[in-house]
Amino acid sequence: MAYLGVPGEEERFAHPAGGDVCTSVSFKPSLLGRPLAAATVYVDARVDLAHRRLLGATGTDDLDYALTEELLRLVAAAAGGLPLRPVSADRTLAAAARQAITEGASEAAGLCSLAALLKVSPYRLSRVFSRETGVSLTRYRNRVRVSQAMDQLAEGEASLADLAARLGFADQAHLTRTVREHVGHTPTVLRRLLAPGSRASRAARSRSDVLVPD
C-alpha cells in the first residue's frame, strides 16, 4: 500500500523492527486537481514493478520521461477509485487484514481463518476489505506474494519451483500464471529485468518503455 498525506497534516506510522525503506513523492497542489481525502492507495504489481525499475535507473544520468509518465498514469488510476470518506472501524479492519497478510500470519492463508483471527464474519471482512482497498482479499494476498517473488527474483533466486513452494503457490505453473496476471511478465522475464547490472537491465534503461515507480 501507499499512503497519501495532506500538507500540514501530521501522521503516525508503525514501522517494523529495524526500520524500513520507502520512496517519497511530492506533488504541487496544482497537479492534484482536488483535495486528497483518502489515507491509503492500493499499489498493484505493475506499479510495484515500475517503481523497482525506476529505482534501478536512478544510477544513470538520464531518467526516462516515458517511464515517469507511465508511473504517474498508474498511480492516478490506483488513487482514482478510493472512497473519500472511509469509516474509521472499517479502515481499521482493512488495515488489520492487510497487516496479517503482509506479515504472513498462518491464519491469512484462508478467508474464514483470517476472519476468525480478526473476530468478524467472513462476509463482513470480504465486503469491508474490497470497499476500503478497491480489490478483493484474494487479489491483495496474491499481490503481496507477487511482490515477494520479485524480491527473491531480484536477489537471484534460480529455482522457480522452490520459489513457488516457499510462497504457498500450488506449483510453478500457478506461480507463473499469477505473476503474469499481476505484472504482465513471467518470472523468467522478471529475473532478467530486475537483475542488477544485467544487459537486459541496461538496455531497459535506454528504451522508452523502461518503467518508473498493488
TrEMBL record:
Question: What is the designated name of this protein?
Answer: HTH araC/xylS-type domain-containing protein
Could you list the residue ranges that cross the membrane?
A: none
Which SUPFAM superfamilies does UniProt cross-reference here? Homeodomain-like
InterPro entries named in the record: AraC_XylS_family_regulators, Homeodomain-like_sf, HTH_AraC, HTH_AraC-typ_CS
Which intervals hold domain HTH araC/xylS-type? 95-193
- Kindly list the GO molecular function terms attached to this UniProt entry: DNA-binding transcription factor activity; sequence-specific DNA binding
- Leader sequence range is none
Q: What is the lineage of its organism?
A: Bacteria, Bacillati, Actinomycetota, Actinomycetes, Kitasatosporales
Which PANTHER family does this UniProt record tie to the protein? HTH-TYPE TRANSCRIPTIONAL ACTIVATOR RHAS-RELATED
Q: Which UniProt keywords apply?
A: DNA-binding, Transcription, Transcription regulation
